[in-house]
């Protein structure tokens, strides 16, 4: 059954963003997150939004699709923003009993909303434009220096890849079991709290059973293909940085330093 | 009066998204008590979507689903009571087992109906009888049973609700020939003794030919063909065109006929076909 999960969904394509090396994308996403956090003033925030616009254009993913990924997070974003409106001190705009809405609070609340939206939209771009396998391969490469500290990088990236691969499968399974129990008269989400939790037992238990069954089957399948952990494994497609990657990194560095310059030239003040 | 009436059902997955897919188009059919209907169609033809409409798991975009003459979507809050009247057994139903004893799992449906303790016990006993498991199974752990036995426990879990119609989606998938045969025999006996209508969805043309009285062929969400089992399997070319197969016995008889032998290709069971061929020998010899 098609579900309404858009985050973490890969949309195949041939845009600039799609062709970038996964390592570039992971590192740049990381820097984008930092940039979101240091963009506090109106000017650097506008710059951030423009930058996000460029990213979306480079990815050839429709903006509607990108912001659809933000939708499930809207309650959290609004909650955080509202909390910030009441928090903090400054020039009061409105006040009743112990609550004070300040100009600064309103500003923080609003910018926080924009920043969180940009953050989620920016991070969703990497999953829209990178297949999970590529992402896992990139992560493995990036983490490989930590092998020195006995971090089992190969196993770790395999685990991540398997987890991501089976999420939609388990979601399908969940829907199927819900339908099967409904067909036997199960009722979900009614009655008191304890009753509600209990009503999900007939779904959760079979789901666990099936997850374990799949795990055992997968273990056998992997062993039959002679997988013995990451030690000494070579890659079929070796990741190489292209000119596009270098260009993207340079441009991003430029944008990043611009943000810092904005912050220095126009220090953040209310 | 018919138990189930579908009138011009249309259903579309993901309406308004790029993944929009029309799964059912103007499907109308009627199921009377004691019917044995086979539904065939290749993967993605809408079989699973269709059976989810019988007990209100899916709501059609347009059209009506009538159970005993009443539109089940007239009062959506009462949809749960429909599920007790129309039993639905999904593919690999053993994966829905969750209790630690056979008795507890089979009684899940009847418990949801709010029956008395005695009523539940009686239904569990009867349902297990129908699937050929005696009372010694009541206290056993369902997860320790064989695959075929687990399947029968799961089917008993639906039979225990005493539905007026029993719908089974590939009930024999993944079982050995003996297990397949046993389950189909038990379903047939249940139908005969209880008067329950049975709807069987299957990829096995042999199973459908042997048991179903009426066959509905789905193609791209439409009812492509509908008629008696003999009539449907006589349209071999049409079935092959729809990506389906015909039963092996029908194949043999059709070949014989093509070669000029006077056989009746309408045989649906192996016994009938055998007789048909023996006749030929007698006449020829």
UniProtKB/TrEMBL annotation, chain A:
Chief location category: membrane
Topological category with respect to the lipid bilayer: Multi-pass membrane protein
Highest taxon of source: Bacteria
Residues annotated as transmembrane: 26-57, 107-128, 246-266
UniProt keyword annotations, A-Z: Cell membrane, Membrane, Transmembrane, Transmembrane helix
Localization per record: Membrane
Cellular-component GO terms for this entry: plasma membrane
Any one Pfam family match given in the protein's UniProt record, by short name: CbiQ
Protein name from the UniProt record: Transporter
Source organism: Sporolactobacillus laevolacticus DSM 442
From TrEMBL, chain B:
Membrane topology: Peripheral membrane protein
EC number(s) from the headed UniProt entry: 7.-.-.-
Classification via InterPro entries: AAA+_ATPase, ABC_transporter-like_ATP-bd, ABC_transporter-like_CS, ABC_transpr_CbiO/EcfA_su, ECF_ABC_transporter_ATP-bd, EcfA2, P-loop_NTPase
One Pfam family cited in the UniProt record for this chain: ABC_tran
Keywords: ATP-binding, Cell membrane, Membrane, Nucleotide-binding, Translocase, Transport
A single Gene Ontology CC term: ATP-binding cassette (ABC) transporter complex
Gene Ontology molecular function: ATP binding; ATP hydrolysis activity; ATPase-coupled transmembrane transporter activity; cobalt ion transmembrane transporter activity
Domain ABC transporter, residue spans: 4-245
Primary location class: membrane
CDD domains noted in UniProt: ABC_cobalt_CbiO_domain1
Subcellular location as annotated: Cell membrane
Annotated function: ATP-binding (A) component of a common energy-coupling factor (ECF) ABC-transporter complex.
NCBIfam families reported for this sequence: ECF_ATPase_2
Subunit structure: Forms a stable energy-coupling factor (ECF) transporter complex composed of 2 membrane-embedded substrate-binding proteins (S component), 2 ATP-binding proteins (A component) and 2 transmembrane proteins (T component).
Family as reported in the entry's similarity comment: Belongs to the ABC transporter superfamily. Energy-coupling factor EcfA family.
Protein name: Energy-coupling factor transporter ATP-binding protein EcfA2
Species in which this protein is naturally found: Sporolactobacillus laevolacticus DSM 442
């Amino acid at each position: 059954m098609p579900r309404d999960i858009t985050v973490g969904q890969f949309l195949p394509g041939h845009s600039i963003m799609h062709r970038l090396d996964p390592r570039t994308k992971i590192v740049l996403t990381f820097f984008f997150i930092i940039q979101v956090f240091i963009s506090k003033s109106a000017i650097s925030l506008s710059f951030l939004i423009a930058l996000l616009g460029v990213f979306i254009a480079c990815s050839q993913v429709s903006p509607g699709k990108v912001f659809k990924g933000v939708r499930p997070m809207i309650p959290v974003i609004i909650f955080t923003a509202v909390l910030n409106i009441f928090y903090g001190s400054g020039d009061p705009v409105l006040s009743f009993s112990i609550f004070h809405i300040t100009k600064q609070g309103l500003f923080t609340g609003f910018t926080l909303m924009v920043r969180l939206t940009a953050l989620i939209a920016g991070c969703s771009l990497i999953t829209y434009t990178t297949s999970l396998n590529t992402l896992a391969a990139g992560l493995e490469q990036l983490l490989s220096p930590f092998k020195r500290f006995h971090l089992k990088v190969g196993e770790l990236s395999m685990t991540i890849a398997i987890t991501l691969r089976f999420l939609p499968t388990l979601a399908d399974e969940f829907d199927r079991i819900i339908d099967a129990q409904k067909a036997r008269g199960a009722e979900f989400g009614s009655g008191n709290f304890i009753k509600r939790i209990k009503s999900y037992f007939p779904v959760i238990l079979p789901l666990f059973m099936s997850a374990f069954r799949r795990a055992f089957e997968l273990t056998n399948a992997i062993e039959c293909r002679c997988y013995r952990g990451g030690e000494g494994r070579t890659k079929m497609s070796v990741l190489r940085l292209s000119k596009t990657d270098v260009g993207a990194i340079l441009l991003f560095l430029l944008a990043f330093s611009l943000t810092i310059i904005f912050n220095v030239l126009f220090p953040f003040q209310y | 009066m018919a138990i189930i009436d579908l009138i011009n059902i249309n259903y579309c997955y993901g309406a308004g998204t790029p993944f929009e897919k029309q799964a059912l188009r103007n499907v109308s059919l009627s199921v009377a008590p004691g019917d044995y209907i086979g539904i065939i169609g290749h993967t993605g033809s809408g079989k699973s979507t269709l059976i989810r409409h019988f007990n209100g798991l899916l709501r059609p975009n347009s059209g009506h689903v009538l159970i005993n003459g009443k539109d089940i979507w007239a009062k959506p809050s009462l949809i749960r009571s429909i599920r007790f009247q129309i039993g639905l057994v999904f593919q690999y139903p053993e994966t829905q087992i969750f209790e630690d004893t056979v008795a507890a799992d089979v009684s899940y449906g009847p418990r949801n109906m709010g029956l008395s303790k005695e009523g539940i016990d009686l239904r569990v006993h009867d349902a297990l009888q129908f699937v050929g498991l005696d009372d010694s199974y009541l206290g056993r752990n369902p997860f320790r049973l064989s695959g075929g036995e687990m399947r029968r426990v799961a089917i008993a879990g639906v039979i225990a609700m005493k539905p007026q119609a029993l719908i089974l989606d590939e009930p024999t998938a993944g079982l050995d020939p003996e297990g397949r045969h046993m389950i189909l025999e038990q379903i047939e006996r249940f139908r005969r003794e209880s008067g329950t209508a049975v709807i069987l969805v299957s990829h096995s043309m042999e199973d459908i030919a042997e048991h179903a009285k009426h066959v509905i062929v789905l193609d791209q969400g439409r009812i492509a063909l509908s008629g008696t089992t003999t009539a449907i399997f006589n349209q071999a070319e049409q079935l092959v065109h729809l990506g389906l197969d015909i039963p092996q016995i029908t194949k043999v008889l059709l070949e014989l006929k093509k070669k000029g032998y006077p056989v009746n290709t309408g045989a649906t069971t192996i016994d009938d076909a055998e007789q048909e061929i023996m006749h030929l020998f007698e006449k020829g010899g």
